[in-house]
Amino acid sequence: MSGKKRKLPLPLACFTVAAVCVVLFVACLIVSRLSPRGLYDQRTSEYFASSAAADEAAGMNYTQVSAFLARGAGYDYMRFMQFRDSLLKKYETDGMTPSAEGAHLWLDAASGTVEGITVKSEKRSAANISATAIIGDFFFFHPTKLLSGQAIVPDAASKDVIMLDAQTAWDAFGSYNVIGARAEINGVPCIVGGVFQKDEGDVSAHRIYVSYEILMNILPGAELNTLEFVLPGPVSGYGLQVMYNEADKTGLLAQIPEENRVIVENSARFNGSTLMKTLTHFDEFVSQTKAIALPYWENAARVATVTAAVYLLLAIVFAVFPCVVILILVVKVYRRRGLLKPWIIDRYTAMKPRLAALEAKAKPRERKNREKTSTEIPETVEPDENPVTDTDLLADFSPDLVQRDDEE
Predict the structure, then answer these.
(1) What is the distance between the alpha carbons of residues 14 and 19, in angstroms, rounded to a whole number?
(2) How far is CA 217 from CA 136, 189, 220, 382, 402, in A?
(3) Is residue 101 included in any domain, yes or no?
(4) DSSP state of 57
(5) Would you list the DSSP string of 244-300?
(6) Rounded Cα gap, residues 135 and 191, in angstroms
(7) How many other C-beta atoms are found inside a 10 Å radius of the C-beta of residue 119?
(8) 114 and 232: one domain?
């Protein structure tokens, strides 16, 4: 007998397993919520709404939307500017305009990447570089850690300024301190305006940022394949609907087949309903069947989305057993409700002597408190045997008033 292992009673074992499942459920929920942590470009709408650049007086809901297009289905600068004008007219028609000078009603950015670029300095060169042309508020969506210099401004007058990542600066110049140095990109002259550190998710060996004008000089007819917006609206989803409608009017997306475009609502991609939709269409989400080269930040966001969805699924699985245990317990209590009342009465009867003992101990304390309180009460003033009446008060002023009062 002594050599046998003692087993836990079945109810106690069930409650123990249920408690462990609850802990795992909470842990999986926390991991699911923290999966997008650090992905600034997926939360641009939140940062913009709280920034000084946003139109705070408008009190709008902001929606972040991204569109990724296949090669050959992109757009040029003029079509992007037409889309901007169409958006501005739409918001003006709806009575939504910036309430303060310098405030922005929305954010937008466009970009396109060309591979195999060569950067040459006077003595050295770097090859196989990814050159990304940018328009609009690109660096608000994708903040870059600058090592020296400053970020290029796409709308600035000077269009020949470029930014190099640290590895490209070292390979092409042999130094990181190259601000103001002259270089050539595929034979096109330019000036280095900044050196930055690449993001961890950027797997390219070298990357540079250039203006759209330089991209057109390097490769005439080059396309912009990425659109990013933070759009305001009085209600949730309004900005997304505006983008679809105006993009169709200007032909920015209407003429592009479904298989050549991917549209993502970034501000809602980590919501519970969106993650559940990802789980139900998991094979379609994981296997990218469209011939679209997604940028590195979108690939990182997709990895985080899959992680969040998987941990949400695990949280649901761990929540099943505790729910079953609670349901069984409720059913048992309901079925034995006839026995519950006698059990309560028996327990009360068993505890009655103990309650009486506690009450007996409490009585002396109450008596002491009363005596203490009575000693603190001030003595009452005894009533006067000959109180002053109203008649006496009147007599002090006029005897005629007293006589008239008696006659009445």
Answers:
(1) 9
(2) 19, 10, 6, 110, 118
(3) yes
(4) G
(5) HHHHHHHTSSTTS-GGGEEEEEGGGTTSHHHHHHHHHTHHHHHS--S-----HHHHH
(6) 18
(7) 25
(8) yes
Collect contacts of 270-278 with beta carbons under 8 A, ≥24 apart.
270/35, 270/36, 270/42, 270/304, 270/305, 270/308, 272/312, 275/32, 275/305, 275/308, 275/309, 275/312, 276/309, 276/312, 278/305, 278/306, 278/309
pLDDT tens column, 49-90: 777 555 554 566 788 888 888 887 778 888 888 888 888 888
Contacts 24+ apart (CB under 8 A), 29-33: 29/311, 29/312, 29/315, 31/307, 31/311, 32/275, 32/307, 32/308, 32/309, 32/311, 32/312, 32/315, 33/308
Q: From the CA atom positions of the chain, what is the Rg in Å? A: 39
Distance in angstroms between the alpha carbons of the first and the last residue of the chain: 109
Residues 28, 63, single domain; the answer is: no
Report the predicted TM-score, pTM, of the whole model to 2 decimal places.
0.72
Same domain, 246 and 319: no
- Tens of pLDDT, residues 280-328: 877 766 666 677 888 889 988 888 999 999 999 999 999 999 999 889 8
At 114 the three-state DSSP class reads strand
Residue range(s) defining the domain that contains residue 312: 11-36+271-276+304-354
- Which pLDDT belongs to residue 332? 81
Cβ of 225: how many Cβ atoms within 10 Å? Answer: 23
Looking at this protein, which amino acid is placed at residue 187? G
E strand or H helix at 345: helix 337-376
255: which residues sit within 8 A by CB, 6+ positions away? none
Question: Rounded to an integer, what distance in angstroms lies between the CA atom of residue 125 and that of residue 172?
Answer: 4
- For the chain, the domain total comes to 2
Residues 30 and 51 in one domain: no
Cα three-residue angle 197-203-206, rounded to 5 degrees = 55
Strand partners, 192: 162
